[in-house]
């Protein structure tokens, strides 16, 4: 049976629970072997319900990027990115610890979990900043 079926609040709650523990986990289908993100109760690839939580490398490549401009002079600009994780799933997040206007498609990044307003959040940093090459 799918380990999500036993989780109160379903797959979203299980994902957030892992983040709160400092772990970036995604699902992997026990039937077709493919990784799944956003959390689901059935595999979007084969329809299987044997989904298990697995750790990710956190490494990926920026697929798309958009610079959000804050109020001029406040330093509140930020980049929203779609990242293709090496496991084959795509996540949305923002880039930290890097000049926002220099974020580029194809840039290698590393996921980090930070706390924002008391809740865990996945952000990305360039791999050279994150320690991996």
Report a brief summary of the structure:
By secondary structure, this protein is mainly beta. It is built from 2 helices and 8 strands; from the N terminus they run αββββββββα.
Write the layout of secondary structure elements.
Layout: H1 10-20, E1 25-29, E2 35-36, E3 51-55, E4 59-68, E5 78-85, E6 90-94, E7 108-116, E8 119-126, H2 127-130
Q: How would you characterize this protein structure?
A:
- This protein has 133 residues and is mostly beta strands.
- Helix content is 11%, strand content 39%.
- A 5-stranded antiparallel sheet has the order 6-5-4-7-8. A 3-stranded antiparallel sheet has the order 2-1-3, with helices on one face.
- Strand 5 and strand 6 form a beta hairpin.
- The chain is globular.
Question: What are the defining features of this structure?
Answer:
2 domains; 8 strands; 133 residues; globular; mainly beta; OB fold (Dihydrolipoamide Acetyltransferase, E2P); 11% helix; 5-stranded antiparallel sheet
Mean pLDDT: 88
Number of domains: 2
CATH C-level class of the largest domain is Mainly Beta
**SSE class:** mainly beta
Distance between the termini: 38 Å
| Fraction of residues in β-strands | 35-45%
Strand order of the largest sheet: 6-5-4-7-8
In oligomeric terms, what are we looking at?
A: single chain
Cα gyration radius (Å): 16 Å
CATH topology of the largest domain: OB fold (Dihydrolipoamide Acetyltransferase, E2P)
**What is the second-level CATH architecture of the largest domain?**
Beta Barrel
- Order of H and E elements: HEEEEEEEEH
Task: Give the fraction of residues assigned to helices.
Answer: 10-25%
The number of strands is 8
